[in-house]
Amino acid sequence: MQPEARVIVPPFSEHVDGDDVIIANPARGVFLAVPPEAAVLLRLLASGQTVAEAGAAYAAQYGQPADIADFVESLTAAGFLDAPPAAPVGTRRYHFASIPVGTARRLWSRPALAVCGALIGLGLLACASEPAIVPSPAALVFDPDHLGLSLVLIALALGAVFVHELAHLLAARAAGVPARLGIGTRLWELVAETDMTGIWLASRRQRCLAFVAGMLADLTLAALLALLLLAHQRAWLGLDLNLVLLARALLFVQLTRLLWELYIFVPTDVYYVLATLTGCRNLMGDTQAWLLNWCWRLVRRPQRIDQSGVPARELRVVRIFAWVWLVGRGLAFASLFFITLPVLAAYLAMLGRGLGGDANPLRPLLEGPALPLLAVGVQLAGIVLWLRGLLRARGHMV
């Protein structure tokens, strides 16, 4: 770089996090962890100093020259000083950034959290005192009026998903960082998701709250449903049969969602809490890189990814998490090839025969429970998006 050149640095934020400093370009959705001296150099460049002036000021403070060209190149490659990175493949973003920070903080205040905790505790007591209210998978099969109740359940479940993601968004807004809602995939599962990358600028407590906010919302709703079913079971309330059936089915859906969050081998809420508590901001990426290097070592090939910059403490966590990643992904792919794909193939074969003129295969699809057929459609959409993402990622690598 020419000594008289000036680097155009966009507005950015910074936050001290342990031994590093998180620098953020919120407008571009880029958040980087850098050493404190790098943050100092960035501030010098942002103040309007030339490359020579910033280098001299840096050398005077630290007693050694700064490689400004390499520093600027790294920030540009990361998107910090370049065009905004594209949204992740297979994801369409929708913004809900207009919620005031004050409103979000009132909704996630200590009294509000205390109310949620009390309801969750009462819900657990209800399930323990009356185990019959805990639903089984049979709760998803409605008889009679299976189609009407199934459609209502789908609408309620989608509403619960929105509440889950909105809880994440509100917790992020309460921490003063931007957030947005969207649709994406976890492996081949179609999911709603909240982009709150800026939460890494918040304190560790605020980060953990933002990551568990969705689960707290799910637990609170599940507790309310359990209390409603307990009141009906004990004859404290006389509820319509259809309302009871819907409450049981929605409670089963909520409990299933909570189990999904325990799949920490993909980026779930619990995974992000684990990454926060261990201080490994890129736990998934570092683990996948470590496993790739390990595979190359097995075949006696040179190491492909340089991980010398990863602290030893984080590498110890990565080695442990690698086993979780391997076992979890192995079970997930086993379920895909031995359960999901055979079921999809059977349904598609029935549909194909029906479209070919044979009405018999279509009868169980149209007259049976609607939920399995709709679940197949959602699953198929997730697989298509996942495969498209893999193909696009491969195209970027070539």
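Above is the first protein from milestone M3; the second protein from the same milestone is given next.
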Amino acid sequence: MPKPTRKVLMLTRRYPPYNAVESTRPAMFAKYLGDYDWEPLVVCGHYDRENSGDRYDADLLPESLEHVICPLPPGDNRLMGEIAADVRMGMRRQLTLSPRAWLTLPGRVGRFVRDNAKDISLWAADNLLPERHPFAFTRSLMAALPELIARHRPDVIWATSPPAGPHTAAAWAGRKFSIPWVADFRDILEQDSVWKSRRTEPQRRWARARETRVARSAAAAVAVSPVLAPILGRRLRRRVEVIPNGADIHDYPSSPPVLDSDFTISYTGWVYIPQQDPGLLFAAIDKLLRTGKLQPERLSVKFYGCHAAAVNSIAARYECAPCVQVLPTVPRAVCHRIQRTSQILLLLEVGQEKGIYPGKVFEYLAARRPILSIPGGGGCVDALLAETHAGVSCSTIDDICKTLTKGYQTWTRTGQVPYHGRAEVIAKYSWPKQTHLLAEVLDQARLRG
């Protein structure tokens, strides 16, 4: 194949072998952009077994690594909310003293500040300059960009957020070297279920103002859902394109799967509590077990790679707890096999927000097994499932009971829960199709530049 004639410099913190949607989106774009006459040049965090923890997956899109031109230290893996909580808790310990101990307070506070100087500086900087988070990575990125741009001469810069640092680096480089850039938003600060627990409202307003100031210099802006795009567009005072995450339909075998012999309901990925709550499912299963419409010895509810303690603590409140298993994170290939062989794939929507497209729903579309989405809120996921016929969305215990009963009865007769997904519609959401949309955005940005 002839070498692409146009170059896009792609800025992202997470990247394979770190296993997360934040990594998969840029890696998939990098994998397919060459098909649309764009050469991807990726600048990202360097991840290995030591700094990835249970997110490390050596088999995660290894072909995308050939596009990496500059891996950088990714910086602190902790969320800023965790750092802020550590600082606040430490300060409370210093102030919770007996009357006599107040005499030693200045010395105690001084030692605490010296011992925690790094965390305190990060916490302060995040409040003052949230658009530069994560600070160490953003600093390294901005230091590396002049030499990389001089060597590779990209036509466009693409940067994905959150975190906001890649946007800040792209805007700075765009101004300095007169290169148009594209701002990609996987989440936005208006999403209450994502950001409410991490920032106070004044902090969020300040972060939005700083983020808006940066993003308005972009030649184009992209959001991942048709609900989030107009919300972001009103803030940026511009049109925002919609490019959802994609389905890995080419990475799953086309042959019919050999399904589990049990009535297996599987969830693959993290569960973010309290934003996502499996309790509605457990309550519905309890109801069916009590009425004899499900047999516990034939039922298996499996969660892979989530926070075991949190899910187990919720399951313990229900009679179905013995049927629930919380298992470790598995490599991507194993995850695909689990999805393909499960009778039902569980999708836990984030709160009642209607604009969030979880990356997981597209994985499930590629697996071609029926999806049970909880709780349905009449939003993007509901519309997607209705369009593709790949599953159902349930908002009440009774709705879940009806869906599970129907699937279980069919399974007892035939050995499988039937799947009715429309392949021709699902194909519209494949990663090659989504990358084609990105290539068009890059073309337009290049012309504007």
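Note on the second protein: The radius of gyration is 24 Å.
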